[in-house]
Amino acid sequence: MKITIKEANKYVDQEVTIGCWLANKRSSGKIAFLQLRDGSGFIQGVVVKEDVGEDIFAHAKSASQESSMYVTGIIQKDERSPFGFELLVKNIEVIHESVDYPITPKAHGPEFLMDNRHLWLRSKRQHAIMKIRNEIIRATYEFFNNEGFVKVDPPILTGSAPEGTSELFATKYFEEDAYLSQSGQLYLEAAAMALGKVFSFGPTFRAEKSKTRRHLIEFWMIEPEMAFYEFKDNLEVQEQYVSYVVQSALKNCTLELNTLGRDTSKLEQIQAPFPRITYDDAVTFLNEKGFADIKWGDDLGAPHETAIAESYDKPVFITHYPTSIKPFYMQPDPDRDDVVLCADLIAPEGYGEIVGGSERIHDFGLLEKRIEEYGLSKEAYKWYLELRQYGSVPHSGFGLGLERTVAWISGVEHVRETIPFPRLLNRLYP
């Protein structure tokens, strides 16, 4: 019977066949230990010479790293194994012998590993990170479907820039100028006026010349947008959603989190509600902590976000940023026209901003004024303004960066490990 490693718990004491690759091996006299992987998981195959005979034992000892094979054996419980099972091997059929596999068990530098990303993905560490990423995606769809949201797919090619053109990739769309999307938000606002509560999940692009461990050129965003939701409602959805995906990862990725050495006690504390501080209070706090460089009206950088997050065990909302440093579409605070109804959600443990959101301007006149003040084309945003002409309502939304969230939940240092093929300032290969 052919099975996957993930299904091993269903076939204890039964003979099965697994199509797999040899990740690593070691031998001790008349016993060989094969570390096998098949994409669904990892299992140890134990080959005992006196049980299998000379030929099969010779195959086990000579097989090279990443050779593909069919391995037949009996599934046995093994409490010493992180997976809980091992395979007592009876037969090995080599499909393809791998020669001179470049990523050996020794340590390699990050540039070498990135050059070989197509192979590095096979490692146990990368496998664990990708499984956690997949669980966050699965839980995202589950959460929004359960909450009555409709999935909408905004275009990747756009004719306008929601947050200015300085960080956009420009291209030609036949005879017109076009850009790779940096957010689907504006289109989702239109969809929310038709469907009430919507969300998108797709790639976004930022032509930002940054080399920090938090930045990618191409990354994936989850962007919900909600009609009749005001600022407070928006924050509640964010904290419920983030709590949901963290708890889902804890429940369904125990083995992967352990493989990465993640301190899961810190994740267990991630339950709504989350603490909230205003931008005003954040600046005061930072000044008291010795950050003399930050003054009111400045945007907060990574060191500032980290200093604030260190005071909390949960993600923390920083709310009510100055109007001057936020995009044109954000709703002003009704009591203060110098700040807007927005929030950034800062993850603990130094992982920085993972969510940005706001209530959107729903007044036609104010939005028109903002577009003019930001030097944007009224013609390009004509359709966006029309959303405020025909049944405008208060509405809000946010965007969660998938890779930063994966990095935080996984506990990995750099976002380049959290996406299958990262696009960085100096990397477009492989």
Automatic annotation (TrEMBL):
<feature type="domain" description="Aminoacyl-transfer RNA synthetases class-II family profile">
    <location>
        <begin position="130"/>
        <end position="430"/>
    </location>
</feature>
<comment type="subunit">
    <text>Homodimer.</text>
</comment>
<keyword id="KW-0547">Nucleotide-binding</keyword>
<dbReference type="Pfam" id="PF01336">
    <property type="entry name" value="tRNA_anti-codon"/>
</dbReference>
<dbReference type="GO" id="GO:0005524">
    <property type="term" value="F:ATP binding"/>
</dbReference>
<dbReference type="GO" id="GO:0005737">
    <property type="term" value="C:cytoplasm"/>
</dbReference>
<dbReference type="InterPro" id="IPR012340">
    <property type="entry name" value="NA-bd_OB-fold"/>
</dbReference>
<keyword id="KW-0030">Aminoacyl-tRNA synthetase</keyword>
<dbReference type="InterPro" id="IPR004365">
    <property type="entry name" value="NA-bd_OB_tRNA"/>
</dbReference>
<comment type="similarity">
    <text>Belongs to the class-II aminoacyl-tRNA synthetase family.</text>
</comment>
<dbReference type="InterPro" id="IPR045864">
    <property type="entry name" value="aa-tRNA-synth_II/BPL/LPL"/>
</dbReference>
<dbReference type="GO" id="GO:0006421">
    <property type="term" value="P:asparaginyl-tRNA aminoacylation"/>
</dbReference>
<dbReference type="InterPro" id="IPR002312">
    <property type="entry name" value="Asp/Asn-tRNA-synth_IIb"/>
</dbReference>
<keyword id="KW-0067">ATP-binding</keyword>
<keyword id="KW-0436">Ligase</keyword>
<keyword id="KW-0648">Protein biosynthesis</keyword>
<dbReference type="GO" id="GO:0004816">
    <property type="term" value="F:asparagine-tRNA ligase activity"/>
</dbReference>
<dbReference type="GO" id="GO:0016740">
    <property type="term" value="F:transferase activity"/>
</dbReference>
<keyword id="KW-0963">Cytoplasm</keyword>
<dbReference type="InterPro" id="IPR004364">
    <property type="entry name" value="Aa-tRNA-synt_II"/>
</dbReference>
<dbReference type="InterPro" id="IPR006195">
    <property type="entry name" value="aa-tRNA-synth_II"/>
</dbReference>
<dbReference type="GO" id="GO:0140096">
    <property type="term" value="F:catalytic activity, acting on a protein"/>
</dbReference>
<dbReference type="InterPro" id="IPR004522">
    <property type="entry name" value="Asn-tRNA-ligase"/>
</dbReference>
<dbReference type="GO" id="GO:0003676">
    <property type="term" value="F:nucleic acid binding"/>
</dbReference>
<dbReference type="Pfam" id="PF00152">
    <property type="entry name" value="tRNA-synt_2"/>
</dbReference>
<protein>
    <recommendedName>
        <fullName>Asparagine--tRNA ligase</fullName>
        <ecNumber>6.1.1.22</ecNumber>
    </recommendedName>
</protein>
